[in-house]
Write a structure and sequence with these properties.
This protein is α/β, with parallel strands linked by helices and 315 residues long. The protein has two domains: 198 residues, Rossmann fold, CATH 3.40.50; 97 residues, Methionyl-tRNA Fmet Formyltransferase, Chain A, domain 2 (Roll), CATH 3.10.25. It is built from eight helices and 15 strands. A hairpin with a 2-residue loop joins strand 12 and strand 13. Helix 1 packs parallel to helix 6 and helix 5 packs antiparallel against helix 7. The longest helix is centred in the middle third of the chain and has 24 residues. It is elongated.
Length: 315
């Protein structure tokens, strides 16, 4: 049986294990890789290639980097290759409807949630931030909507109680490589059929904004901690102390409660530890602090340097 001819479309590290899986399995032939153009990245804003491009070059695959997938040249490129399928994972651009019918099997996507829940750009972050204990992966045929296409396979994945977004993303990325490969093979053989999503169960995971990271101290400590885990590494979790923005790290104090007279956000010294009062009488055990423009330090170093006075608080 002839290998399935595919075009792989993706950009970040999350997509790399899947690209490598398609390249190594004899059932597939990766005809080309589409990824975003080289862009300034990181603190130094040096122009660099995407993780998918680096992997594709390592695998000696042809790379195509259109400024926009909506261009006429992108359409001509796909028509010229005429692949059996396009596999798209975290590419970063909306695919126009006119391109969806070019591959015989359509465009197959690996999405990091149990659709129709958490449609959108940041499903892993919002699932953790909202305190979910189970997430998962879904493969689907993409349509003109935002993660609204019919689904193929689903795989549930538990979320660890202390797991952060990068940690869960790494696990999902590795597991997803086999899920998307099997989806394409089973779909081609007619062993699975696309199933329409149930719109009444849909929820959304919008792109993260800086303001999502501001801590609301009136929330209970476990909810603050969930957002700390979910919004790692960006936008992080931050508050204001003496007019300066501080990024904070900590965890719920399972054995302690805050006195009713202590306002949310107030810093309380307890033995060699420092706690922050939160909503519903809970406390957050403060572990690390990074004042904007400075290095990350321990809570004790922060307290010693700040020379805390009674009733001082984060706001």
């Amino acid at each position: 049986m002839a290998a399935l001819r595919i075009v792989f479309c993706g950009t970040p590290e999350f997509a790399v294990p899947s690209l490598r899986r398609f390249a190594e399995r004899p059932e597939f032939s990766v005809e080309a890789v589409i990824t975003q153009p080289d862009r300034p990245r990181g603190r130094g804003q040096h122009v660099s290639a995407s993780s998918v491009k680096e992997a594709a070059l390592d695998l000696q695959l042809h790379v195509y980097q259109p400024e926009t997938i909506k261009s006429d040249s992108s359409q001509e490129f796909l028509k010229r290759i005429a692949p059996d399928a396009v596999v798209i994972i975290a590419y970063g651009q909306i695919v126009p409807a006119r391109l969806l019918t070019i591959p015989r099997l359509g465009w197959l996507n690996l999405h990091a949630s149990l659709l129709p829940r958490y449609r959108g750009a940041a499903p892993i972050h919002w699932a953790i931030a909202n305190g979910e204990t189970v997430s998962g992966l879904t493969t689907m045929q993409i349509d003109a909507g935002m993660d609204t296409g019919p689904t193929l396979l689903r795989r549930e994945i538990p979320i660890g109680p202390d797991e952060t977004s990068p940690e869960l993303a790494a696990r999902m990325s590795a597991i997803g490589a086999d899920v998307i490969a099997e989806s394409l093979l089973q779909f081609d053989r007619g062993e699975i059929s696309p199933v329409a999503q149930d719109e009444k169960n849909a929820s959304h995971a919008p792109i993260l904004k800086k303001e999502n990271g501001r801590i609301e101290w009136a929330q209970p400590a476990h909810k603050i901690y969930n957002r700390m885990r979910g919004f790692t590494p960006w936008p992080g979790s931050y508050s204001t102390f003496r007019g300066q923005t501080c990024h904070l790290w900590g965890r719920p104090d399972a054995g302690g409660t805050a006195e009713a007279s202590i306002a949310p956000g107030e810093i309380v010294a307890a033995a060699k530890e420092f706690h922050v009062a939160c909503g519903e009488g809970t406390r957050l055990l403060l572990e690390s602090v990074q004042i904007e423009g400075r290095k990350k330090i321990s809570a004790r170093e922060f307290a010693n340097g700040a020379r805390l006075t009674p009733a001082e608080r984060f706001i």
